[in-house]
């Protein structure tokens, strides 16, 4: 096996032939084939000819194929709405964020000292959300609006003062949200009751919570404050899904009495992208901040007492609380949240209000004109969406489609029209719409006055004060008053601001991020190219099938490739995060058991080493977690597994395992493990987090797996984006395929294998974060079968090379037979602490001074570093990391020898900033050069951390989760 034998694979894989020889000699194998034969158990290895059969394509040819797929899509003017709107992404944000590897190749900010730019941007996002919603604390984004509503329901349940299982849902909710709520609630024993709040329908206030859509899916705007008060008086909590652009003109949910506000920030400069990725949001009133799911950015201080940002409170709570976690969401939509926040920064409050006014004014103009002509506009009060009664809705929708406009067919006699930022600046929209409705010659229509002649849309002929909602709902509160929203309005200022933020971060464009279990591999520029093409970016997720034929072909091809690579029969690309893929797989297992009448099968066995999201997802799927022990080698304890299977034989629903194991080892007993579960009537869920160690050599379906989720943001090259986006498709055997996620608005489309999915949805859009699927499609297409196999072997070789070079300095905690690890290795730093007092935190922070992002800390074992070099790094970078770790151990030994005090040495003081060494009097017992240039290679290209070590406890004690005033930094 010659690694990187195809042209693109040779560019993706960092190890050339010369380096491969050095690394194999170090590990002790003649070639990569013999290494993999020794590492991967023979019982699970693929036979020749099995798996994916795909010739690799050159980069130029791949782009040509992608262009053909893009050309099969039709870019129309979408006026469907329902939470998805066309928007202008400012070019300065496209170039400096969306297409900038400094932003899209960064990792989750678990090392806050080298994530200050991203954290500041996320704090700006949180401030934007709290200002507009009128609530006290917002998190750093959710996956999408519909899943945010579900999470809001769960927060309401935890915070409610009554024990009811009833949740009231607005009859005017977005249809995709209503479907998702119903599916998720059923598994948790929650009774969802639909109520037409806006029409004054009566309801039982004895509910733990209620959900209000504001404005409604119909576009209707009404005052929900009385409903909110009634639910709260009954001890319940109220969730309001609010449109942030509308909130620049409408009263905020907080001012109306809401406890929780959720929604999407898509229309703040993030393309529709056939459904995602987009940053959802959640904000809560004071007292509920510790109930927030996901991530929360807060302000703390560093070792010098200066303000510094970090993740607060329950971040990664799933890995700590496991089955007691309140949410399975461990990710965010960071890249998209940054884009939305910077859209608000660039436009500022006044321009945002102008955009909202122009959208509302255009809707008002059309509504008034239609009414003059005698058509019925259903709602008297609205913001941007109208529902119009017509004699034949299909005829109107078809006529609009012929004019290049997509409208929503509500029912036989009702058509929905949603206006947005793009339509409001397009002079052809109103004439075309009125023509479609047959009223272009209506009295009062100002077309004869040269509408749009200046190219300014509504502003060309009407004041911005038009209002089609009650004065009592008009916003009077100020918003976005912080300096960040009032300063960077020229492109020069914005460009420099984004550059300053990026410079405070460490991403793959600076060096290796060797995070175990996270697979921070190359995100090639060719893979990324198609994402911003309008044929992919400007597509509404509910567009007609004939408009998205290229997307559907891409989806089918990618589904089939993933099925072939994993040994499964069917794949759903709907889950928009790994956690949602986990949940979808478990809900499919639940659906399968229920269909067979086995409703008592609720026990989920999970090894003690598993990812924490596994346990949280099982609970959210209505299962009860039973933990299975692991042995000293990190493998599932087979005796304990058999005992647990026997004890729960009649109630066993599933086993969740990760392969290779969370400890980075290929378990030899995996076939025996899955057989034991199947014999007891259970199903096997194989977590796909570590698929990068398996592709081309073994398949989950052949191990006995019934269902798995796959992290496209790990194995298949979708960028992590600073902590999101992600895609977590769920793959299953044929018997579970009918229970995979479906969607009420899915285009008529035959999935790979010809399967029909009938399970409930897990994401807001039919294909989840569809706009980034071309990245993984391009990765697989260019790598081909041989390149993917080479990548796996290169990743395993790199991990074993690091393990071999460091084993005499740091014990490698787990290894399989032949002493080999899989694609990652766990370095045990506990002996170092016992001998020197230096902690894993000290080593992680000192690595920053050496120019590295630290490996994964204390997971899955406290006091360890889990290292995953991936296949993308070259031997020079691997050696640089090894030498840094050896040098750090030497520094720790100097502490142990008394050369440096335990409380004043380069490790406990790390990281060192430029400011910290520029003081006139240096009082530390080690020289300044040792602090910041521990190796001479750093002198010319050093990364300087912007802050010193951050005091985590201070930030939790003094919770501040919005932009601090400028004087805090003086």
Describe it for me?
By secondary structure, the chain is an alpha/beta fold. Among the domains are: 108-342, 3-Layer(aba) Sandwich (Aspartate Aminotransferase, domain 2); 551-768, 3-Layer(aba) Sandwich (Aspartate Aminotransferase, domain 2), CATH 3.40.640.10; 784-956, Aspartate Aminotransferase, domain 1, CATH 3.90.1150.10. It is 37% helix and 11% strand. It is built from 33 helices and 25 strands. Strands 2-8-7-6-5-3-4 form a seven-stranded mixed β-sheet, sandwiched between helices. Helix 4 packs across helix 21 (549-566) and helix 7 (116-133) packs across helix 18. The longest helix has 39 residues, at 334-372. Residues 11-425, 485-742 form the Glycine cleavage system P-protein N-terminal domain.
What's the helix and strand layout?
Elements: H1 7-12, H2 17-27, H3 32-39, H4 59-71, E1 77-78, H5 91-98, H6 101-104, H7 116-133, E2 137-138, H8 145-159, E3 166-170, H9 175-187, E4 191-195, E5 209-214, H10 225-233, E6 237-242, H11 253-256, E7 260-264, E8 280-284, E9 297-301, E10 307-311, H12 317-321, H13 334-372, E11 376-377, E12 385-389, H14 393-402, E13 405-406, E14 408-411, E15 414-418, H15 421-424, H16 429-436, H17 484-487, H18 491-503, H19 525-528, H20 534-537, H21 549-566, E16 570-572, H22 578-595, E17 603-607, H23 612-620, E18 624-628, H24 638-647, E19 652-658, H25 670-679, E20 683-688, E21 707-710, E22 730-732, H26 773-806, E23 825-828, H27 830-836, H28 840-849, E24 856-857, E25 864-867, H29 875-896, H30 914-917, H31 928-932, H32 938-941, H33 952-957
Parallel strand pairs: 1-13, 3-4, 3-5, 5-6, 6-7, 17-18, 17-19, 19-20, 20-21
Antiparallel strand pairs: 2-8, 7-8, 9-10, 11-12, 12-15, 14-15, 16-22, 21-22, 23-25, 24-25
Helix pairs in contact: 2-26, 3-26, 4-21, 4-26, 5-13, 5-18, 7-13, 7-18, 8-9, 21-26, 22-23, 24-25, 26-29
EC number: 1.4.4.2
Cofactor: pyridoxal 5'-phosphate
Catalytic activity: N(6)-[(R)-lipoyl]-L-lysyl-[glycine-cleavage complex H protein] + glycine + H(+) = N(6)-[(R)-S(8)-aminomethyldihydrolipoyl]-L-lysyl-[glycine-cleavage complex H protein] + CO2
